[in-house]
Specification:
By secondary structure, this protein is an all-alpha fold. Helices cover 83% and strands 0% of the residues. It starts with 12 loop residues before the first helix and ends with a helix.
Length: 101
């Protein structure tokens, strides 16, 4: 079958063996998690995907809550600073009136 393929005379037996050895090495190097998932049956993969999506959803909700809390804290701080400025400006106006007399 090798002699009928194009370029069959260009590849030696040792080249073919080396190529096969490299392919086997690549399989061994692959991430263990990828191999683990590829060995799972479809229902297991679906369950794992669902679990990861649930975790992602929970994490997203947690981040959203933190962002909303931070925005609320920033808003309160901004209002507090405005009140302080108003009081300060009000005190300054009172002082100005008292110095005019």
């Amino acid at each position: 079958s090798r002699s009928s393929s194009p370029g069959a005379g260009l590849l030696t037996e040792s080249m073919l063996k080396e190529e096969e050895r490299l392919k086997e090495g690549e399989l061994k190097i692959q991430d263990p998690n990828v191999q683990k998932v590829s060995n799972m049956v479809e229902s297991q993969r679906y369950a794992r995907l669902q679990h990861l999506l649930d975790k992602s959803s929970i994490f997203s909700k947690l981040l959203l809550k933190k962002m909303e809390d931070q925005m609320e804290a920033n808003k309160k701080e901004s209002l507090r600073k405005k009140r302080v400025r108003k009081r300060k400006n009000g005190d300054d106006k009172t002082k100005d009136k008292s110095t005019e007399i």
